[in-house]
Design a protein that fits this description.
By secondary structure, this protein is an alpha+beta fold. The protein has helices spanning 2-40, 44-56, 60-75, 82-125, 160-173, 207-210, 216-230, 272-288, and strands at residues 132-141, 148-156, 180-181, 190-196, 199-204, 238-243, 246-247, 250-251, 254-255. Strands 4-5-6-7 form a 4-stranded mixed beta sheet. α1 crosses α4 (82-125) and α5 packs across α7. The protein starts with a helix and ends with a helix.
Length: 289
């Protein structure tokens, strides 16, 4: 009998522990929510304090109104009408509705901020941008009629900003193959890169303008070897050009008033080595003949 009594005594204790755990969890959630809201709204605690003060200490206006009312009743004058009562009741209802609406807005704003906070954290964790990329670095090529040649290179990435920066640096290094030649003006340096709404802003040094050749064809080559290279990078759809931090809206004969986008007319997907050997084959045959 003693064993059975002990078992019956232990069961309520387990229930009490579970109830305490649920209560502690609810209190913890409330505290966390209060902390988040207080961080986002520093004046929240001050407003609560002011409300408590106003509740326990009536304002001067309320005191004046109460004195005026007492004086009127002391004179025996009945100035309260049915319209005044209705107006008072309506105003009171309006005030309560406004307070309830403000309270609901506060709760919605609080939860929206909490959700946005966790979404930002998840977005950072789910950043799956590749750590490296293999892209085509475009150059002008011998024997090619208005078509760019390319050299495949692997660049360090991790983010669109880093990828664009390293792609431009590869362009400035120039080609490795003897049948490719650079068209970017010599001495040009990369000053900075910024990504904004799928657009890459590249800031180049003054040499980009000062050392450019006066040729409409080469102007387009300069711009679109850069654009066609950069737009291979994910999340980059256009390029904006800056010189020493100031945007340029025209480069020779090329209109840059709007972001420059990829131009398929300059792209040839054939292997540049094969194309170059085919171009040289007729001349070599003639020399042998």
């Amino acid at each position: 009998m003693r064993d059975e009594e002990q078992l019956f005594k232990k069961k309520p204790r387990k229930k009490n522990r579970f109830a305490k755990f649920v209560l502690v969890l609810i209190v913890f959630i409330i505290i966390i929510s209060f902390v988040f809201y207080s961080i986002e709204n520093p004046s929240f605690i001050k407003n609560i304090n002011n409300r408590f003060k106003s509740f326990y200490a009536p304002s001067e206006e309320n005191a004046d109104k109460s004195n005026e009312t007492a004086a009127v009743w002391g004179q025996g004058t009945d100035i309260v009408t049915e319209d005044a009562i209705e107006f008072t009741e309506t105003a009171g209802q309006g005030t309560v509705a406004e307070e309830q609406g403000a309270h609901q807005d506060t709760i919605q704003t609080l939860w929206q901020k909490i959700l946005e906070f966790f979404k930002r954290g998840l977005a950072k964790d789910n950043n799956n941008f590749p750590s490296s990329l293999e892209i085509k670095i475009y150059f002008a090529s011998l024997g090619q009629d208005e078509k760019f040649s390319y050299e495949k290179r692997t660049i360090i990435a991790g983010s669109p900003n880093i990828a664009v920066e390293n792609a431009v640096k590869e362009l400035l290094k120039g080609p490795h193959k003897s049948f490719n030649f650079p068209v970017i003006p010599p001495g040009t340096k990369l000053k900075g890169v910024e990504i904004y709404e799928n657009l890459a802003k590249i800031d180049l040094s003054q040499e980009f303008l000062e050392n450019s050749l006066e040729s409409g064809v080469l102007d387009e080559y300069v711009i679109y070897t850069i654009v066609n290279t950069i737009t291979q990078i994910p999340d980059v759809e256009g390029v904006i050009f800056l010189i020493e931090g100031k945007r340029i809206r025209i480069y020779g004969s090329v209109d840059l008033s709007i972001p420059a986008i990829k131009d398929e007319d300059y792209i040839n997907e054939d292997d540049p080595v094969e194309m170059y050997s085919e171009d040289l084959a007729p001349s070599q045959t003639e020399e042998e003949g």
